[in-house]
Amino acid sequence: MLEIIDIHKTFNAGTINEKRALQGVSLHLKPGDFVTVIGGNGAGKSTLMNSVSGAYPVDEGKILIDGVDVTHLPEHKRAQYIGRVFQDPMMGTAATMQIEENLALAARRGKIRTLRTGITKKERALYKEQLATLGLGLEERMTAKVGLLSGGQRQALTLLMAALQKPKLLLLDEHTAALDPKTAAKVLETTQRIVERDNLTTLMITHNMRDAITYGNRLIMMYDGRIVVDVSGEEKKKLTVEQLLALFSKASGSDEVNDKLLLS
Amino acid sequence: MERLMNFGSALPGVLSLGLIWGVMAIGLYITYKILELSDLTVDGSFCTGGAVCIVMMAMGQPTWLAMVCAFLAGMLTGAVTGFLHTTCKIPAILAGILTQLGLWTINMIIMGIEKGELISTLTIPARNSKPLVSALFLSTALDGTKPIYLYPPIVLVVITACIIGILYWFFGTERGASIRATGANEHMARAQGINTNANKMIGLMLANGLVALSGSLFAQYNGNSEINMGRGAIVIGLAAIIIGDVLFGKLFKNFALKLLAVSLGAIVYYLVIQAVLTLLQVDSQYLKLMSAAIVAIFLTVPNLGGHGFKKHKKEVPVCSK
Fold it and tell me: How far is B306 from chain A, CA to nearest CA, in Å?
């Protein structure tokens, strides 16, 4: 479903601030794969995500989604294949617009925006139903401005929006990092439910090793712009945090990075 | 007492001018409030509208066609700014200034198109002109020389209502909603597959089309187009938006009403200016300074908290219930 072939990305090339964020990353996701991504600060997780979403172009390599080469497609055109939830709860929704308007915008992802009415009666009924599944009572506040919602509510709404028009790929960029633990758990639960319901191919960055082990059928760890650990299936199910740390220090060839990873 | 009489007799004219500038301010609202872009093209495109309209009327073209062309010309100026901003990646404020500066010459070329030279003022020839609005009709429509439906405030209220109606419809469509999303949150818009550059282009074109339409009304009203007629337009437009928001923001939540507030803001602005000019008998040379001061004050007031400090941006709590 997603095929990343040897991508490279360097920021500020040729300057003193040169940062080789991705140094030859290749990754192949089968339909329905739920892959969790971990790694310390500056490992290249977010750069990988942003390269796939098209937020910025890669220097080298290819990215294919469901067989379509999207390497040179601008961000808004790639969006027809990709659903996204950001780390910052403010980023995924339009605060000054109503809940139902946000959903209507998401429902038209990948379609040409015409002069037809922006939201129909039929849609409203559908959104009400969908919002009810979140269990946050948002279905009673459809015309409320999204800016009035809490961070957790906004992330849940963004998730719903990402899945409204079934994406070929769901990108979750530390989408629970800015939430308190209780809310984060709730949003993760919702994530799991939506991913399973629609059988979505998912790439989820997380800073939490336990979540990385609990969720998904495959786990990759990044270090210094490369994928250094890649476990899936039965092997992943049996994985413990200690084993993960051991794997990491072996891959990176150093013990001190343990702290770096834990602290991040 | 005499001053008060003068003020009273000036009211229909003030109302007319307020409504005309209100149309411009509604255009500015699209860029400034909806797209959150500061578009300085307007000082130039306002005059472009007037120039195109008067030139066509002078050539004997029907008034409605002259106004349609003024609107289209305005859209073209918006497209130039849009191109500089989205394709050339020039900051919006600078892109607008560049277009505005270039338009200074373009506007003189337009006005001088018949004679083939640059002209800075063009008057409608009396014989073949049928302006839709004119300061002259203020008296002639009332004494029966002209039909009453040509009374400028009536004509302008109808025009304003039509514009508000059309914009209300447009910003409720799929495309219109995606333009609002572009202004509200570009990240979100792109993630939802919205071409933000195209939308900024559409917004800038629509806005400057309305500004030029307003310019064409202003030129007809005065009976001429003049190269400086748009100078300071952006300040008047901002004043209208801000005054409208301060006075009616709490009351008007609906989008159409918000646009109405902008138009009312423009009228209030002209009332204040007229009051200062006739009641306080301030020299009209002080007008620009006063305008700037009024806008500065109205921009400052909403930022003042209880203790004179800037209000902190409302923080959204990061936990759910």
Answer: 23
A85-to-A75, A131, A187 alpha-carbon distances in Å: 14, 17, 11
List CB contacts of B90: < 8 A, sequence separation 6 or more. Answer: B84, B98
Angle between helices B152-170 and B255-274 (to 10 degrees): 150
Alpha carbons A83 and A202: distance in angstroms, whole number: 9
- Per DSSP, helices labelled H in A73-180 are 75-78, 99-107, 121-132, 151-164
Angle, CA of A162, A168 and A171, to the nearest 5°: 50
Q: What is the pLDDT at residue B303?
A: 78
Q: Are the beta carbons of B191 and A93 separated by less than 8 Å?
A: no
Q: Tell me whether residue A109 is exposed, middle or buried, using C-beta atoms within 10 angstroms of its C-beta: 0 to 12, 13 to 18, 19 or more.
A: buried
In chain A, residues with a C-beta closer than 8 Å to the C-beta of B176 are: 118
Tokens 């200074």 identify what position? B104
What 3-state class would DSSP assign to B278?
A: helix
Distance CA B8, CA B135 (A): 16
Q: Is A137 exposed, middle or buried (0-12, 13-18, 19+ CB in 10 A)?
A: exposed
From A175-179, B123-127, B159-163, the region with the lowest mean pLDDT? B123-127
In chain A, the domains with their CATH numbers are 2-96+149-263 (3.40.50.300)
Q: Beta-carbon neighbour count of residue A24 at 10 Å?
A: 14
What would the two tokens of residue A27 be?
A: 């990754």
Which helix (DSSP H) or strand (DSSP E) does residue A24 occupy?
Answer: strand A19-29
Q: Do A105 and B191 touch (CB under 8 A)?
A: no
Cβ neighbours of residue B209 closer than 8 Å, sequence gap 6 or more: B27, B71, B72, B74, B75, B78
Could you report the per-residue pLDDT of B16-50, keeping only the tens digit for each? 999 999 999 999 999 999 999 999 999 999 999 99
| Cβ contact B190–A75 (<8 Å) | yes
Q: What is the pLDDT of residues B182-217, one digit of tens each?
A: 999 999 999 999 999 999 999 999 999 999 999 999
Instruction: Give the separation between CA A80 and CA A155, rounded to whole angstroms.
Output: 20
**DSSP 8-state code for residue B62:** -
Bigger pLDDT: B319 vs B234: B234
Q: What is the mean pLDDT of residues B163-176?
A: 97
Please list the helix, strand and coil fractions of chain B in percent, rounded to the nearest 5, in that order.
70, 5, 25
- Amino acid (1-letter code) at residue A134: L
Give the Cα separation of A212 and A219 in Å (integer).
Answer: 7
Residue A179 C-alpha, separation from nearest chain B C-alpha, in angstroms: 6
**Residue B123: other Cβ atoms inside 10 A:** 14
Contact A76 B190 (CB under 8 A): yes
What does the DSSP assignment read for B211-223?
Answer: HHHHHHHHHHHHT
Q: How many other C-beta atoms can be found within 10 angstroms of the C-beta atom of residue B94?
A: 14
Give the distance, in angstroms, between the CA of residue B33 and the centroid of all CA atoms in the same chain: 13
Q: Compute the half-sphere exposure of residue B121: CA atoms within 13 Å on the CB side of its CA.
A: 6
| Residue ranges of domains in chain B, CATH in brackets | 2-303 (1.10.3470)
